[in-house]
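Journal club side-thread
Mid-discussion, someone asked how the predicted structure for our own chain would compare to the paper's figures. Pasting it here so we can look after the session.
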Amino acid sequence: MKKNEKYAAVGLIAIVAFAFVAFQQGWLDQYLNPPQARVITDEIKSDYQKGIGRWNVLETVTDSLDPATVRTSATNYKLYWYSRQGLQWIYHETGNNKYVSLTPADGGHLWVVVAIPSGQAFYVDYQKIVSINQYVDAYEYVDVDGDGVREYAFKYSMKGQPIPNSGYPSITFLGFLITYDSSFTGLNDIANETAIGGSTTTKFKSYYLAFSAAKKGVAIWKIEAKITSTDESKIRLKKLNVPGLGYLDGSAFSKIYTASDYRYVYTISNNFDGALYVKHPSNALNEYDMTLGLEYTLSNGDDILVTLTVYYLVAQTEASTSTTDSFYAQYS
């Protein structure tokens, strides 16, 4: 056999082998059995009603505060299709308009994993995703692929889906992202509280949060009020208004003591899951009330520094950053 004939024979064997594997795995179904030519029998339909079979899976991901803005797959976000058997995650496909096959072992559910690539300034709006997608039964914030980074995985029920008479049934996952305000204005500047006097009295400071632009948000994870004094009787936190939570009583805060101050700390969540997502939609007042109520019992000469700090999470990295403002509480 001549060399070129040998190479041709080897190539032919490789092509035949690939074609066999592709046929066995169903990779060529949409080409060999185009949807319009595939008749769904009653038996096949019965399996589909249990979430078993081959599906055409579609996705569209938009901005939560600007639904007309469609985000770009594989650039702004990545979407993966998985199933799960026990603790085992089984990868199927990535992206839009794909085909996946589910077996009885998959329990009638497909898992949709949404991740934000490095350098992209977006949060996954998991709460809106759960509320909008009627077939999403639950979600998990979990490291699906073992790379040390957690992603949002949405448990999508394939049971009871509409089944056509021919072709492949399809489902559409609706995703939502929040644009992170990397130039967040944060807390406003408050003047000193003067002439408080020595009687026990409660006063309020008109704090608010502001954004650099509309259609953006931040994920708040912790709030701290620091009193630069070692005498806790001087100033007590009575209440703090938090956007989306309302007024929190001082008793809801933990207390931390140091050699030079004491602090009231309210922790919401130290990661993306459970953080407080404050959003600034279009045509809304850019002042999100954080009125601070403090009870004073000062002595002559007291001039105590009070610092309010709001900690929030940087999109994609989950690193913490903050906005802060201070004022002096003065006896006279």
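Post-session note: Residues 186-330 form a domain with the Immunoglobulin-like fold (CATH 2.60.40).
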